[in-house]
């Protein structure tokens, strides 16, 4: 009996000990924080050392190389702390904050991340790099996010096919131009060896983000100045759409549908979409610059077999004169206000210099958001993004602020119905108005 | 055991007082929201240690007359405590929250039945309710038919019964999330070669797909229960029937089915309640997508979203906790009614026998 | 004549049985052949062996296991730890409670039993939202992490599994003759000793049943851990990890199917070992 009791006690004790073990690293906000700040940063902070929390573990080596270069040049020690995808980075950072162990530079992925640090990020608007880019993150605290790479949303195209068909992508800035180009390419399908003009996929369960976020995002931003939030504001105000602009947009989507790969448009998968584009079976594909990475890794064989063709991006010109693609930094580095601010700012400024850019672009594979950068990454889409940036023809990326779940629960499905032919253009616009209003009302 | 060991007389009060002291200290720190640094951080542990020490003291309490009662309490406490904290308290809170403007963290006012009124004005919710009822009816019939047919198959003179039984039951072992994705693969990448567009993109066919997957997962389990019922049908009764010249079909209709009536009741309600609660497969397979062109004058984008998923989405994705909770309470009421009916039916059956 | 008919019936039955088995096993078969291929091979032809190779399986396995978004071993270990701890505590506490309820015919024990039985109809959905907020508030108040912690989730499983466990074990305790306990008591066995020495060992068949029922439920459960631990939190169980992995941006079927296979294998192995007990346990749980 005593043995059983002790066993029971042991079990409960282990459980409670585990409870403590589970508690300690969680950094619960109620616990006031008592974690020792000294041990994890590797030495007390001093004027000539800064610490950076990086969220892309795959570029850890490149960043450490930069740190070594920086130390050699200036004597300032930069310690890089890289966190992998499985880690809740924001949660870890909150723990650091409570334990008084904040890094000087840390990664933030967007508005919701920055919202965690209201009033805690240093304003960098006095820094020279700010005027060199349009991808900095700005909120009411000032310029708080240093961009280090760029992604773009545009209508990606196979430059070799366009050239063979005699279509100049620079002319694709109006619906009429697109219509002519699509018709030309469609007429030469066999010669060009393609199965369809456009790889437009609308499957609603898994690919809703492509239509509901990215395509829809073009309605919100295409052709506008980076800071122009006219249509985003309208949407935010109870889910309203500008009927004229949206009808033009809907007509353009109808054009995409007309020339799309019909067998794949309704339920094709992302894998198939990218593979078919990489294999040279589409002239256009409705995906952004991130597919470059897939084309050169997973689909490298098919891409090579198709001749490693050149690619580019054209604007979604659903109205005459739209000539911008949407670009944005997927995440930013912020400087902690009470940290080693000056040294951190100096380091970030140094990252825009030629030597540092060479490592960031050529080794880490980032697409530089800085106009002065002379390097273009090996990514197939790097050149086209750099060109648009240098020409100042980029628009902002405001769909990130759309109502949560708008694409997944509402708009993705409507795009799919439009593609299935269940909705005509007029009804598509009406339904889109209805679902947006519903989404923003809830 | 008859005399009380003197050590207990000392240890028991020591433990009791020590336990209460730790408990008190920990709670005091909770209430003040602060305390001496090393202790404050470990106040949770101190609390647990206090509880354990208190129970140890209680166990050693030097009494013979009340020892049984003390042990009874100690034996009941763990389960009752966890049960109370995880089921009873949340249930009561949940019913209360459903009548407030609860945000998942706090509430500011009592709104009466406003949430309930609101959900019946939400067309997409009514749709979810409707298809859930349809889904339940379809499954109740189909899963039972298929399960029963498989049970007959498995009790007939079949070679390798063990293998077939295991093969039919196997899908039931796999969690809904994993098999939902596997079936999504089957529909979107394999069957699509036959069906043209994937079955999951049109609401009616996607709904049918969920039913097919559900039968696939559940029929094997129901089959086992029917097999269990069928083997209790006495062999001599069947023999007598055979001698009387009854063919297989009449034997089934006149003897087997009446004799396993209670099993049929069990299976019917088992499929009914589990179909009602369907969540994992729904989420992994379609995540509720599918369009309805015109339902009560509205376009809907949640064509295959069943009740459980609708509740989840309302609260988690759309962040309307109070509304989601009100829907959940309705869900509870429906299930409670179903269970009451079940109890009624099985009780009246027992009386008949 | 008669035997002929029987043969044809037999053949028909066999054919039907085989067809149904093919249907139930087909998805498993598809998973098994496609984990041997790369993503393009799967997209190109998901039903044949074309492009299948053992080396590709190894690549897929290592890609999945080493994927930092999936962290297979970690999720597997977490799931196993949660399941095992919950099962042990449920059997122990459930048995204790069942015995006390059964052997004390008071108003209280009766009421407790009725509440347990009645609670079995409560769907998880109605308690899940307040549960999370209660756990968060209580945890913050007493300074224990109840959400996002293994002990917290084990605690919740003890609460949710308690009713069914008590229900089945009470049925078993009833079958143990009371004389046995009296005899032990006369022999000088203490009250609690009677339970641990006499009753608990006799409950074994029912403990196996509840362990199977609870085990299948806890191991496969998605909703409770996803709410308590978060969709992509620090601690994750296998179903949550699969969902987080699959639900992420891009559908890579080679990795997803490999992940699905890894998630299925433990259950299938256990099934092959304890087939009889699992099937009879599942039936018993339902019939009661």
Describe the structure.
The complex is a heterotrimer of chains A (442), B (353) and C (288). By secondary structure, chain A is an alpha/beta fold. Helices cover 46% and strands 12% of the residues of chain A. Chain A has two domains: 128 residues, Periplasmic binding protein-like II (D-Maltodextrin-Binding Protein, domain 2, 3-Layer(aba) Sandwich); 221 residues, D-Maltodextrin-Binding Protein, domain 2 (3-Layer(aba) Sandwich), CATH 3.40.190. In chain A, the strands form three sheets. Chain A has a six-stranded mixed sheet with strand order 2-1-3-12-5-4, sandwiched between helices. Chain A is globular. By secondary structure, chain B is an all-alpha fold. In chain B, a hairpin with a 2-residue loop joins strand 1 and strand 2. The two termini of chain B are 50 Å apart. The radius of gyration of chain C is 24 Å and the shape is globular. The model of chain C has no long low-confidence stretch (mean pLDDT 86). At the B-C interface, helix 1, helix 3, helix 4, helix 7 and helix 8 of B face helix 1, helix 4, helix 5, helix 6 and helix 7 of C.
Distance between the termini of chain A: 59 Å
Give the SSE string of chain C: HHHHHHHHHHHHHH
Uncertain residue ranges of chain A: 1-46
Tell me the quaternary state: heterotrimer
Short account of what is shown:
The complex is a heterotrimer of chains A (442), B (353) and C (288). Chain A has helices at 2-23, 38-41, 60-74, 89-98, 111-115, 159-165, 175-187, 189-192, 208-221, 230-236, 243-258, 262-265, 270-278, 291-296, 300-305, 341-351, 354-363, 382-391, 406-420, 425-441, and strands spanning 49-54, 77-82, 105-108, 137-139, 142-147, 151-153, 155-158, 196-199, 282-285, 311-314, 325-328, 332-335, 394-395. With 442 residues, chain A is an alpha/beta fold.
């Amino acid at each position: 009996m005593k043995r059983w009791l002790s066993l029971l006690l042991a079990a409960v004790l282990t459980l409670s000990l585990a409870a403590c073990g589970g508690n300690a690293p969680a950094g619960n906000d109620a616990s006031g924080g008592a974690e020792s700040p000294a041990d994890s940063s590797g030495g007390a902070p001093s004027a000539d050392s800064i610490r950076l929390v990086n969220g892309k573990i795959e570029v850890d080596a490149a960043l450490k190389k930069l740190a070594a270069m920086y130390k050699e040049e200036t004597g300032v020690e930069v310690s890089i702390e890289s966190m992998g995808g499985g880690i809740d980075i924001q949660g870890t950072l909150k723990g650091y904050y409570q334990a008084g162990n904040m890094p000087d530079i840390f990664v933030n992925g967007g508005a919701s991340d920055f919202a965690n640090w209201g009033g805690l990020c240093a304003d960098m608007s006095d820094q020279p790099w700010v005027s060199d880019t349009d991808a900095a993150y700005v909120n009411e605290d000032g310029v708080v996010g240093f961009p280090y790479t760029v992604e773009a949303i545009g209508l990606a195209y196979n430059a070799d096919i366009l050239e063979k068909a005699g279509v100049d992508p620079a002319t694709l800035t109006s619906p009429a131009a697109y219509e002519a180009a699509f018709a030309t390419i469609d007429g030469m399908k066999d010669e060009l060896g393609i199965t369809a003009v456009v790889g437009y996929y609308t499957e609603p369960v898994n690919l809703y983000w492509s239509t509901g976020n990215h395509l829809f995002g073009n309605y919100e931003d295409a052709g506008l100045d980076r800071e122009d939030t006219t249509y985003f504001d309208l949407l935010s105000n109870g889910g309203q759409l500008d009927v004229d602009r949206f009808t033009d947009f809907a007509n353009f989507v109808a054009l995409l549908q007309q020339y799309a790969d019909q067998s794949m448009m309704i339920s094709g998968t992302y894998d198939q979409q990218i593979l078919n584009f990489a294999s040279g079976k589409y002239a256009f594909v409705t995906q952004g610059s991130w597919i470059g990475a897939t084309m050169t890794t997973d689909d490298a064989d098919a891409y090579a077999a198709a001749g490693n063709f050149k690619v580019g991006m054209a604007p979604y010109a659903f109205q005459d004169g739209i000539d911008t693609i949407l670009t944005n930094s997927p995440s930013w580095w912020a400087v902690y206000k009470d940290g080693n601010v000056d040294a951190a700012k100096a380091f970030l400024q140094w990252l825009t210099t030629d030597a540092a850019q060479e490592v960031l672009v050529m080794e880490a594979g980032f697409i530089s958001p800085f106009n002065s950068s002379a390097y273009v990454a090996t990514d197939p889409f790097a050149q086209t993004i750099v060109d648009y940036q240098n020409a100042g023809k980029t628009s902002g990326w405001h769909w990130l602020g759309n109502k949560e779940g708008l694409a997944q629960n509402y708009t993705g499905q409507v795009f799919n119905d439009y593609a299935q032919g269940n909705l005509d253009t007029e009804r598509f616009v009406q339904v889109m108005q209805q679902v947006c209003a519903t989404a923003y009302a809830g | 055991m008859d005399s009380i060991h003197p050590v207990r007389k000392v240890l028991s009060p020591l433990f009791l007082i020590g336990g209460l002291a730790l408990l008190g200290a920990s709670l005091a720190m909770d209430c003040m929201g602060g305390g001496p640094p090393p202790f404050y951080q470990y106040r949770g542990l101190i609390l647990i240690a206090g509880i354990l020490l208190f129970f140890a003291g209680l166990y050693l309490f030097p009494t013979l007359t009340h020892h049984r009662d003390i042990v009874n309490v100690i034996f009941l406490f763990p389960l009752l405590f966890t049960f109370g904290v995880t089921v009873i308290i949340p249930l009561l809170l949940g019913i209360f929250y459903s009548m407030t403007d609860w945000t998942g963290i706090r509430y500011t006012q009592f709104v009466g039945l406003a949430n309930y009124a609101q959900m019946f004005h939400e067309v997409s919710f009514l749709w979810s309710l409707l298809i859930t009822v349809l889904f339940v009816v379809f499954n109740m019939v189909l899963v039972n038919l298929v399960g029963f047919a498989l049970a007959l198959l498995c009790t007939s003179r079949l070679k390798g019964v063990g293998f077939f039984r295991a093969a039919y039951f196997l899908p039931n072992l796999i969690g809904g999330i994993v098999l939902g994705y596997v079936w999504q693969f089957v529909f979107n990448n394999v069957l699509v070669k036959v069906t043209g567009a994937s079955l999951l993109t049109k609401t009616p066919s996607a709904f049918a797909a969920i039913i097919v997957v559900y039968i696939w997962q559940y029929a094997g389990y129901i089959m086992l229960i029917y097999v269990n019922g069928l083997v209790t049908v006495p062999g001599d009764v069947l023999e007598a029937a055979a001698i009387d010249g009854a063919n297989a079909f009449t034997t089934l209709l006149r003897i087997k089915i009446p004799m396993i009536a209670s099993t049929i009741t069990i299976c019917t309600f088992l499929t009914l309640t589990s179909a009602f609660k369907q969540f994992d497969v729904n989420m992994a397979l379609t995540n509720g997508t599918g369009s309805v062109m015109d339902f009560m004058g509205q376009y809907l984008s949640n064509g295959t979203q069943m009740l459980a998923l609708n509740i989840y989405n309302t609260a988690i994705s759309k962040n309307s906790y109070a509304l989601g909770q009100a829907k959940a309470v309705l869900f509870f009421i429906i299930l409670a009614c179903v269970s009451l009916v079940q109890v009624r039916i099985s009780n009246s059956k027992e009386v008949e026998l | 004549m008669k035997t002929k008919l029987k043969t044809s019936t037999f053949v028909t039955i066999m054919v039907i049985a085989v067809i149904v088995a093919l249907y139930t096993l087909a998805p498993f078969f598809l998973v098994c052949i496609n984990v041997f291929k790369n993503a393009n091979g799967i997209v190109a032809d998901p039903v044949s062996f074309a492009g299948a190779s053992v080396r590709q399986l190894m690549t897929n396995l290592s890609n999945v296991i080493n994927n930092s978004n999936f962290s297979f071993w970690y999720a597997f270990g977490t799931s196993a730890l949660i399941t095992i701890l919950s099962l042990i505590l449920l059997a122990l506490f459930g048995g204790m409670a069942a015995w006390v309820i059964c052997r004390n015919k008071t108003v209280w024990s009766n009421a407790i039993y009725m509440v347990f039985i009645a609670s079995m109809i409560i769907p998880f959905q109605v308690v899940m939202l307040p549960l999370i907020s209660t756990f968060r508030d209580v945890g913050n108040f007493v300074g224990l992490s109840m959400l996002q912690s293994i002990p917290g989730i084990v605690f919740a499983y003890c609460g949710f599994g308690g009713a069914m466990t008590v229900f089945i074990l009470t049925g078993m305790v009833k079958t143990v003759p009371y004389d046995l306990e009296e005899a032990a008591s006369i022999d000088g066995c203490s009250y609690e000793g009677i339970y641990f020495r006499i009753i608990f060992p006799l409950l074994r068949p029912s403990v196996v049943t509840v362990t199977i029922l609870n085990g299948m439920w806890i191991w496969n459960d998605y909703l409770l851990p996803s709410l308590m631990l978060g969709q992509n939190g620090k601690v994750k169980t296998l179903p949550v990890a699969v969902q987080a992995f699959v639900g992420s941006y891009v559908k890579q079927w080679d990795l997803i199917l490999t992940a699905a296979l890894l998630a299925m294998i433990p259950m299938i192995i256990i099934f092959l070992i304890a087939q009889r007990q699992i099937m009879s346990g599942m039936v018993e749980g339902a019939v009661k």
